[in-house]
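Q: Is it fine to ask for two folds in a single conversation?
A: Yes, each is treated on its own. Send the first.
Q: Here.
A: Result:
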Amino acid sequence: MKLLPTQYSKKIEAGTDEAGRGCIAGPVSAAAVIFSKNYSNPNLNDSKKLSEKKRNELRKVIEKDALAFSVVHVENHEIDKINILNASILAMHKAIKELKIVPEFILVDGNRFSKFENLEHKCIIYGDTKFQNIAAASILAKTYRDELMIKLGKKYPQYNWNKNKGYPTKFHKNSLKLHGSSVYHRKSFRLFDIQKELKF
């Protein structure tokens, strides 16, 4: 796998990314990661390109090697209030704020972000395939969120969250038709045409 650049700037830089934006249940989660300037791990990559086993292995490595990291969840009821884009940005802001080291620069996956405090930032499309700190953030956000959805799924086994993690799979949609929604479903999302029939 191609070695990813360490970072974009010469400053103390935090990479940040989110997971769960396209789900219909559960939170949107975000992580922020700071590595040392000379850090190198060729196994880091976009979490979506890694197997679940590899993501969980790398999570332990990231947590050990990072100078600082944090992961936060913004719950579904907050998503319903402020919309998923704003909730994703809020999650990244919260993750950055919780870092034990204050960054001087923020590197963001994607093309949408709002200025955080007085820090400079740069949005990078497909940043999780280009920069190690963003790739690491994508892995942490994904693994922590998946872990949470598996835990929540024990309360609501009818939706199969241990498998779909809240994404709108065919099984998940059919379960909504049969059982209605749970307290963890995003009520503001247009799930499909029969949404008006669901028991919100």
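Q: Second one now.
A: Result:
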Amino acid sequence: MISETGRVVGIDHDALWVETIQRSTCSSCSAQKGCGQGLMNKALGGRRNQLRVKLGNQSADDFQLDDQLEIGIPERALVGGAMVVYLVPLFTMLVAMAGVSHFIAGDVAAAAGALFGFVAGMAILSLHARWIRDNPDYQPQILAKKPSLAAQPVSVFDSPYSV
């Protein structure tokens, strides 16, 4: 199970919307210069990712906006999802390009076939995403609710530096 800390940014009746990427994590990572996530975060002005986390047997009333959560996703789901997202459009693009090139000669026809194959691959991905949307094997899960920093009382008078 791969875990990540996130912040609740939206609450539905059956799911939470959790913002997951943290700048501190990206700045301390050893793959900082070669990581696509870190580069996209910098290029898009710090836009963060949001995940829909189904509540399962928990109630939406147990959560508030800005709650800190630890969420987890099975490794199988992450690796399998990455394989599908990268390989399906590539495979459909190459198959369509080869199919069109077999029947119609020319670079323009091959490029049109590749474009058609890529679009078909993206359509297949869209259908696949709808198909697994509610499959619990591919869903992030709430592992723990962390205590909120805002909920802890702060006393100014107990400071060792007070006079």
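Q: Anything structural to flag on that second result?
A: Two points. The helical segments are 23-28, 36-43, 75-103, 107-132. The first helix runs from residue 23 to 28.
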